[in-house]
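Predict structure. Chain length: 345.
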Amino acid sequence: MESMRWNGDSLELLDQTKLPKALEYIHCQDYRRVGLAIKRLEVRGAPAIGAAAAYGVVLGAQEVVKDADFREKVAVIAEELRQTRPTAVNLFWAIDRMMACLDACDADMANDAVAVKLEEEAKVIEELDREVNRSMSEHGATLFTEPVSILTHCNAGALATVAYGTALGVIRQAHAEGHVVRVFADETRPLLQGARLTAWELNEDGIPVTLITDNMAGWVMKQKKVQAVIVGADRITSNGDVANKIGTYSVAVLAKEHGIPFYVAAPMSTFDWTMESGDEIPIEERDADEVKHVYGVQTAPLDIDVFNPAFDVTPHEYVAAIITEKGIIHNPNKETMARFKKEKM
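Prediction complete.
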C-alpha cells in the first residue's frame, strides 16, 4: 500500500480516517490542503507527516513561482506547514531540509529552477524514508531469534511512513524470518489507530493479529500471551525519553512490571538532540469531541470536561532498546545515546 503519491503538480494522500471501511486518496493541489490533511490526521505517523510536508512546500513553491518575492513567500508557506502539528519532530526535520535546499540555491537562480530543486529534495526525503525503514526493519529483526508474540500500540506501519513502517516494519521482517507467531494490537483510543489501521495492515499482510482494547494489555501480559512490546515514536530526546501516541507510557510501565522488553523503532530523523529530556517535549492537545464521540455517535455528556493529550512520554528507563536505521541503542540513557550519536552520525 502507498501512503502517498507525488504526481509532479499534486500530492495524493491515502485518507487514513476512512480506513478500514474505504481505501480513498485525497487529491492535494495546493499546500493548504496538505496542511489540512496533517491537522485532520488524514495523513499521520511522524515519517509520513514529514514527507507530506516536504511536498507541501513544493506545491507552495509552484504556486508562487512567478512572484518577485518568491523565496520569502516559500519561507512563509514552510512556516505555515510547520505549525500544523507540534509533537512529531520529523515534520520540522523535513521542513528544515527543504529550507536548507532553498538557501543553498544561488541568489540568481530562476524561481522555476529553484522550485525544481525543491521537488528533487522532497523526492530524496521520500526515498530516504523507504531506505531507512528497510534498514531499521533488518536491524530490529535481530532482536527476535525464536518465535514470539508481540504487542504494539497505535500504528507505526506503512501507513505511518512512505513504505514498510517502523515498528510494523520490524514485525514484518521478523515474521518473514519465522520469529513472530502473533501480534496483539491495542485499539488505541480515542481515534482507534490500532483497530482501524494496524489490525487492517497486519491482516492484509497475512500476519496473525488479535485486536484488544487498551485496558486489556496488562491482563494479556499477565497471561503470558506476549513476550515483547514494540512501538514507534514521534520524538526522542537526547537522554532516550520517547514521545509516542497517548497510552504508550502505560504499556511501557506494564511491560516493565511483567518483565517484558519494551522496544521503540524510529528513524534518526525522530531524534531531537536539542532536548535533554521528555519534560521539554510539547504535547499536542486535541478537540474534546474526539473523546465524547466515536464516529459521530455521542458517548459522553456534551458538557463534561475532557483532557485529550494526543501523546505521552515514556522515560528512557522503561525502554529496553531503540531500533534505528543505523543500529540498535540498548538501554538508552544520556550516556548510551551520546555514544551512539558520536559513533553513527
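Summary: The chain has a mean pLDDT of 97.
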